Amino acid sequence: MSNQYTMHMNCCLWKADKIEKKKLINSLHTLEVIEQESHFTRKILECKNCGQVYLYEFTEEVDWEDGNDKQLFRWFPVESIYEAWKLAETPPIGLINHPAIRIDFSKDMQNPKGPYKYDPS
Ligand SMILES: [Zn+2]
């Protein structure tokens, strides 16, 4: 996971110092819906400004015991729609180290964390 992602980092959203949620949502439109359920969603999105493709993923961990559901929203920058489909073959846990714009939220948090850029490289 080193430089192979460098080419994906030219999106205005990715390059911004601080990502505003409203701008993030408004800048992306849906190309394809891979899966859409109440606790798991994956879509292929495109940046209206620069054409950057993202695999978008929403996961919710439902904890019936204390109702402390964890929500994770991730936007993975990818090179193409094909790459997005390929990435979507990986289960969410397998993408934990993949660069992404993220929003994390659980009910014990007062406010969601993010959107922020997660880039372990
Ligand atoms: Zn962009």
User: What is the CA–CA distance across the termini?
Assistant: 7 Å
Bound molecules: zinc ion
Number of domains: 1
Which structural class matches the secondary elements? mainly beta
Unreliable stretches covering 5 or more consecutive residues: none
| Helix amount | 10-25%
Specify the overall morphology.
globular
Q: Care to count the β-strands?
A: 6
Count of runs of 4 or more consecutive helical residues: 3
The average pLDDT score comes to 89
Strand content: 35-45%
Radius of gyration: 14 Å
H-E order: HHEEEEHEE
Largest sheet: 6 strands, antiparallel
> Which strand order does the major sheet show?
1-2-3-4-5-6
Describe this structure in words.
- It is a single chain.
- With 121 residues, the chain is mainly beta.
- It has one domain (3-118).
- The chain is 15% helix and 40% strand.
- It is built from 3 helices and 6 strands.
- The protein has a 6-stranded antiparallel sheet with strand order 1-2-3-4-5-6.
- A hairpin with a 3-residue loop joins strand 1 and strand 2.
- The termini are close together.
- The model has no long low-confidence stretch (mean pLDDT 89).
- The chain binds zinc ion.
- Residues 11-13, 47, 49-50, 52 line the site of zinc ion (ZN).
- Residues 11-13, 47, 49-50, 52 line the site of zinc ion.
